[in-house]
TrEMBL record:
Entry function: Modulates cellular lipopolysaccharide (LPS) levels by regulating LpxC, which is involved in lipid A biosynthesis. May act by modulating the proteolytic activity of FtsH towards LpxC. May also coordinate assembly of proteins involved in LPS synthesis at the plasma membrane.
GO cellular component: cytoplasmic side of plasma membrane
Cytoplasmic side: 24-382
Any Pfam family: Zn_ribbon_LapB
SUPFAM superfamilies given in the database record: TPR-like
HAMAP family: LPS_assembly_LapB
Topological relation to the membrane, as annotated: Single-pass membrane protein
Gene giving rise to this polypeptide: lapB
Species name: Tepidimonas fonticaldi
Main location (coarse class): membrane
Family (UniProt): Belongs to the LapB family.
Binding site for Fe cation: C351, C354, C365, C368
Protein name as catalogued: Lipopolysaccharide assembly protein B
Lineage, broadest ranks: Bacteria, Pseudomonadati, Pseudomonadota, Betaproteobacteria, Burkholderiales
Keywords, alphabetical: Cell inner membrane, Cell membrane, Iron, Membrane, Metal-binding, Repeat, TPR repeat, Transmembrane, Transmembrane helix
Domain LapB rubredoxin metal binding: 349-373
Amino acid sequence: MGFDLSWLLWALPVAFALGWLASRFDLRQWRLESRQAPRAYFRGLNHLLNEQQDQAIDAFIEAVRHDPDAAELHFALGGLFRRRGDYDRAVRVHEHLLARADLPPRERERAQHALAFDFLKAGLLDRAEAAFTALLGTRYDADAKVALLGIHERSRDWARAAEMAQALEGSDRGSFRLRLAHHRCEQAAALHRQGHTTEALALLESLVHQVPQSARAWAALADLRQSLGHVDGGLAALEALADHCPEHVPLIAHSLAQWSLMAGTPERARSRLADWAQAHAPSLDVTQALATLDPDATTARQRYIAHLRQEPSLVAATLWLAGVPLGTADEEPLVRRALERAGEPLKRYRCAACGFESRQYFWHCPGCQGWDTYPPRRVEEL
């Protein structure tokens, strides 16, 4: 039986027509999806401008579904997840990007950078450290070093923190000399606790010569010398602090007064504190220290009156009233207790960055983890 060529003549036009219809269908589908993707994207952008993060996430998820190869949409979605605190989903988005073989090197570094911050925000410090370490030497090198510095500080790994601060010194991120000094002070404190007093003393003495602007280094050196019985050496360190960091004198005024009395040199401390008081705004700590150094109680009380003439102070008034009878023997304790209770919150220190208040002065704020964010004055004096 012979082959009928007429079927071939009919089949070719039919196949062509089917192919043309299929291409038209695919083209329409592609156009429809390409229109839906930007619509979803712009809808998500509109929600972002209106601070509607949940609706923006839904819109971006829809946009990613229509255009799964768009890296920019993934970055937007991952950033939204992180801002909302949904760190697991942010990690999955950025890990999905890193798993793509077709991702350009520049976008791969960007995804690694975003993933590192996902881990950091989630509190996964070990994974964040590994992710940021992978960014060293890239265009995110400075960001990675700053983040690693913060991780080492949170982990209280002061040796590695000091190493990272040294690496950042001289970069476009500013000076890290004072921050490095804090790390060295923490190392010295650890050495002292472990009984390595000689090493701690040598570290602090070297530090004050390298970073004389560090008030903490001078104060730590003074405390260590005094604890070893070297009162004169401690006083010398406090006087050096007053010369290099005069704004921090209120923090050491009490120690300067007490140690000078122990050393038998009260006049020297009185003269230095009086000169400081004339050149700076009134400080309750300096006024108290001067009152301590005055041998006559009446003269000491006049210090508080002089303070009150310059600046109203409930704490100074309470100290002045310490030498004045306040009613009967039964009434006086009640009045004094009420005055002390009212003045107690005014004696605190307050972080200028986050507002965290404490009776103790902190070089490193427990609230915001900032360094040198506490003014060296009481709340009442701010």
